[in-house]
## 1
Amino acid sequence: MARLIIMGPPGSGKGTQAEHLARHFGIPAISTGDLFRAHVRDKTDLGLEAGGFMDRGEFVPDHVTTDMLKQRMEDADAAQGFLLDGYPRTVIQIGALDEMLAGRGQPLDVVLALMASDSELLARMLRRAQEQGRSDDTEAVIQRRLALYRDETEPVLTAYSKRGILLSVDGSGDREAITASAIAAVEGALAG
Ligand code: ADP
């Protein structure tokens, strides 16, 4: 079973693509953003801690995020394969994930990166703000999240590119066409 990561800037549609890819490959999509939002909604201690960071567009501290992910990865559905959405987002988190997977004897197969222009990203996020009313989708917070992506998360892409497991897919345009090319790219890499 496949062990995948999907990456992409806020607004790139990675959450939506993650759902479709996970279904295709028969693995759970594990989104740290969704896990945090569930904690916020349920008003858990973790949710209270994470919510403030999220509303400001800041990252939740690495150790908090990593502990939450570790727990989710222990669920039975993630034992053999998974698609991570939103983790790792920092170079520190790469190391934490490496350690987690080394302990399980499970190397990563593919890191898929969705690419899109800043203007498209901003437009999509402002649209999502109206549709979903996410508290971190105001313009100032969006700009902060885009900047953090560039400063903290693009180095993660570089690191995986050096390992030779990064695949880039054009994330602009039709949702179904993007899913199809992402599936084709991942299947090609898994076969080859
Ligand atoms: P998007 O990709 O649209 O920015 P996500 O749903 O992936 O949104 O994440 C929402 C928020 O959750 C982030 O802005 C951040 O505050 C927090 N978050 C999610 N994943 C991580 C992570 N790996 N490390 C730190 N914070 C995270």
Note: The chain has one domain: 3-191.
## 2
Amino acid sequence: MNITLVGTGYVGLVTGTCFANVGNDVTCLDVDISKIEQLSNGESPFYEPGLSEMMTKCIDDNRLHFTCSKKEAYEHADVIFICVGTPTGAKGECDLSHVFGVADDIAKSSASDRSPLIIVKSTVPVGTTHKVRERIPERMSIANNPEFLREGNAIEDFRRPDRVVCGVDTEGARTVLTKLYAPFVGEGRPLLFFDIPSSEMVKYASNAMLACKISFINEIASLCERNGANIDAVRTGMCADNRIGTAFFRPGIGYGGSCFPKDTLAVMEMGQDANAPCLVNTAVHELNLRQRAWFAQRVIDHFGGSLEGKRIAFWGLAFKPRTDDVRDAPSIDIAKALIERGAEVIGFDPEAAENFSIEVSQIELADDMYAVTSQADALVICTEWPEFGTCSLSKVKGLLNEPLIFDGRNMFDEDTMTKAGFTYYSVGRPTVTQSSNTTANQ
Ligand code: UDX
């Protein structure tokens, strides 16, 4: 099938490449000429394991093309996916200008004898796909098809999805989507069809639920710190209930990224617009912001309220491992809070350091995880890159001015840190202190 993807971010580029990889002829459209040149050379503009290799293979097989020309992108398309960004506006609203701009372009640029299926894949508030319907010619049909890709795992998530969700209101759209996703569904990977508004809502409900799990476990972790419980034990005991499950209950400094923060705000806005305030989502959002402020304050309190003259090393700057994305990363707010109290911050991240320095210009960067700890007064861990968990603690101890770690992702256990001789703060667990050489409650 001739498929066009509009927008070459995580969603558009991964979707287009994976569809090309199973034999479709795919054209990716973007307005950014320099980006299109980079893509045409098989280079991904962001770090995503395996993507560049798959792009190169599909480009070499002449099944994956990149263009800035709307005419070229639309003239032969059987299917056009809208995958442009839906950023959060100044008032917390979901900015749909790019989505509607594409719909208008399609209406203007498509040949009158073509009747492609227009599929909205961008995450959009309920009712948006029907608004796109109003902006395109009658001869074209419309569908909604949200994505559930995790950055750093996007290709795997696309090729082996838990489910594919489609919103349709014509048999023709159902037939096209069934054919498109045939290589990826089956054996417990259902292809689900709903009405269009329900399909749009599934995306938000899913992300809101995942964000809620994170804020929930972080709230319980805060309670554990105050009443002497240990979140690891509580989590094990709680998650043994098969109605609760274990996934997505890792306590830490909370969620970041381009989706959970944006989508939680969008649900809150939908609630306001519908005069049905979404109290749970509002609490999830506020808790998430509080978690990063609380973690920064813990560092500040340890040093008596001022960080003047203190050098603080950061391990991990990306919002999660296996990505170079720092959008809304907790590390940004934490670094800024420490710098504001006078700290000198030096950071290391295997992939995200350059992007981070754009957000926090005062940070000094090191290109080695051990070098960054040299002569630092404390080490702060914000992203759980695997190499941090397997580091030489004795080497780190020798490099730091004092054996002091603030672990925002609970990468180590208390016994290990006691034996290694660290003062070790983590989330939802007793602090390991060296004075009594035993674990003490916060
Ligand atoms: C998320 C959704 O998982 C995906 O389905 C959707 O399409 C896009 O948004 P992503 O934002 O890439 O994907 O990353 P994810 O792995 O979900 O993690 C999001 C954030 O939650 C990260 O900052 C991560 O550190 C944090 N997190 C995740 C926790 O704090 N605890 C957890 O247990 C899991």
Note: Residues 147-151, 207, 210, 214, 248-250, 252, 254-257, 259-260, 319-320 surround uridine-5'-diphosphate-xylopyranose (CB under 6 Å).
